[in-house]
Amino acid sequence: MNFVCVFIGGGLGSICRYGIALLLRPYTDQFPYATLMANIVSCVILGWLFAYSQRVGLSSNATLLLMTGFCGGFSTFSTFSLETFTLFTSGQSLAAFANVVGNLVICLGAIWLGIKLSV
Fold this sequence. Notes:
mainly alpha
């Protein structure tokens, strides 16, 4: 059942991300506004769900469907942002900074590697 919740949520999140891409297509010639908007909206949703789950609680199925699945399918940046925020707020500033730098630098390097491997 866990996999089903993540699968359904991820599909719905991906559809929403695609919808934003379609809506903002006329404006993305010079800047990736659709990606930025998806990341912002997903972060707001994940932040709200996180706070709500801390106050009221969410079932494990709801957490998997909404937080892992939907927000993960909508934008993994939201998960990265929440994890970094949690590290900062728990006093692990060095780990939070390493997470930011590591994800940016290593993932940019991984893009470069993927491009080089395709040649």
